[in-house]
Each structure stands twice: as structure tokens, then as C-alpha cells.
Fold this protein.
Amino acid sequence: QVQLVESGGGLVQPGYSLRLSCAASGFTSSPYYMSWVRQVPGKGLEWVSSIYSDGSDVYYADSVQGRFTASRDNAKNTVYLQMNNLKSEDTAVYYCAISHYGMGYTEKYEYDYWGQGTQVTVSS
């Protein structure tokens, strides 16, 4: 059974940075996309970023392009999301999720595995 555990969320002021981690355990067949998606209570999922299983391709939503950087350490089975120049509109619960057939999804059922989420709050 694949398990994803996010960490690194917290409360920061606008303009500051955070790094989220997603540790994966268990086995899942390759290739796959590891994605970061976020959700504000009462609103739908927003896709943030995806990184291919071998790290060769990385994709970003326009809203975070240039500020967020996704990376992975396959030796540690961990994916990271470095978030710089955070804005109040980045406030959300951030989830990591695995999909095998594509990326950029905004519906939970389109992902095969989910983490429990980590809260990011950007406020002065």
C-alpha cells in the first residue's frame, strides 16, 4: 500500500519561504506523476505542480510559476516543493498525490494516492 506523508507547512508572512516535503512509502508502478495540489476550505482543488517519476519533467501552474520549485530525491523517496515569495493567496491545505495517466488534475478521483495534507498559512 502506497502512503504519502506531507510535512513542512506552517504560518509565514508574505514574501517569506517554506519547503514542503512528501515522503512516499510502499510500491507503485512507474511511470507516474507526483503532484502538489492545494485546497482552500469551501473551494475546489487547485493543481500546483507535477514532477515526473524520474524527475525529467516538471510542470507548474501559472499562479506559482517562478516562485515555486518542485524537486525529488529518489534515494529518499521524497518530493519537495520549495515555495518562495509566498502570497496570502497561497494559503491552503497542500496535498501530494500520485497519478499514473496524466497530470494537472483538479478532481480527487483522478489521483490514485493522496497524502493527509499540510496547512500553509501566509499572513502578516
